[in-house]
TrEMBL record:
GO terms for molecular function: hydrolase activity, hydrolyzing O-glycosyl compounds. Belongs to the glycosyl hydrolase 5 (cellulase A) family. GO terms for biological process: polysaccharide catabolic process. This is Glycoside hydrolase family 5 protein.
Length: 322
């Protein structure tokens, strides 16, 4: 009888957790022992989607309806607002408009109880330090105390060294920490967020809850065993990683969608219990786009509105996040 009561209690707890949102289940995230963990000290392994650049075609999907649809239908536990900084129409030219797009997405993520990356989507952030400081000051003041929010301060540094990336981070992190003492800050690494092993040899110190982004494109011939080896080395050295962007195609967003290579990458990700956001919510005609041309702007997508990548990722999320 006692055994049955115990099993029933475990079942009730399990059902209760399933009914709760990802943030209600995991609480405030932190970095401990080289890992991103939840409020219980366990790796939450969040899985979800990245919006496209908040420019061009992807801009129209930056609205609460899409966020709600991603949480309810795709079962995403994390999303990423990839705010374009440049060229035309980006934050440097339209700071108020771009900030409004991002906050619409972030506010709805908070309402629905999922995590959200606020991504300064710029390949040349070291050239825009003042603007980045201003933006993250606004975001940290607005969202301090919200466990949903993660700050990603430089998307994919290109042809710069780790010293440049680290120097930039050491200018932006104190701005955020002045207002938000605890939420995770994600730092990039050289070579489009691939050289995490170099960052692991000289990590940022003096601040808590700092993680590092790692990106890959699963079908790209240059993103296979050698790139996984870099990440394996960084993990072994105690560098906390989060995959803030990955795609089923190749590094240019197009090319082949190789199912076998994609499944190999996903197995590696699952084995390492890493959180991830798949690229990208747009109806642009490219391999990594999740939506067919002219998919409804506010969500409510049928399978016919999804590309092969969209169908695959939706199925993966609904299976893995159930």
């Amino acid at each position: 009888m006692k055994h049955s009561v115990a099993l029933f209690a475990i079942l009730l707890i399990s059902l209760s957790l399933q009914a709760q949102t990802p943030v209600a289940v995991n609480g405030k995230l932190q970095v401990t022992g080289g890992k991103i963990v939840n409020s219980r000290g366990q790796a939450p392994q969040l899985r979800g989607l990245s919006f496209s650049w908040s420019l061009w075609q992807g801009r129209k999907y930056y609205n609460p309806g899409v966020v709600s649809w991603l949480a309810d239908d795709f079962k995403a536990s994390i999303i990423r607002a990839a705010m374009g900084v440049q060229p035309d129409g980006g934050y440097l030219q339209q700071p108020d408009e771009q900030t409004e797009l991002v906050t619409q997405v972030v506010d709805e993520a908070i309402r629905t109880g999922i995590y959200v990356l606020i991504d300064w989507h710029d390949h040349h952030s070291n050239e825009h330090v003042a603007a980045a400081k201003d933006f993250f000051k606004q975001m940290a003041k607005k969202y301090t105390g919200k466990p949903n929010v993660i700050y990603e301060i430089w998307n994919e540094p290109e042809k710069v060294d780790w010293k440049t990336v680290k120097d930039y981070a050491l200018q932006i992190i104190p701005v955020i920490r002045k207002y938000d003492q605890n939420n995770i800050i994600v730092v990039g690494s050289p070579h489009w967020d691939q050289d995490v092993d170099i960052a692991a040899a000289d990590p940022i110190t003096g601040f808590d809850n700092i993680a590092y982004s790692f990106h890959f494109y699963a079908s790209d011939p240059n993103h296979q065993e050698g790139l996984r080896a870099k990440a394996d080395k960084a993990i072994a050295m105690g560098l906390p990683l989060i995959i803030t962007e990955w795609g089923v195609g190749e590094a240019n967003g197009n090319g082949e969608f190789n199912l076998q290579k994609t499944q190999t990458w996903l197995k590696w990700v699952e084995d390492n219990k890493l959180s991830w956001a798949n690229w990208n919510i747009t109806d642009k005609h490219e391999t990594t786009a999740l939506l067919q041309r002219d998919a409804p702007v506010y969500g409510g997508w049928t399978e016919g509105n999804l590309t092969p990548a969209g169908i695959f990722i939706r199925n993966e999320l609904r299976e893995l996040n159930k």
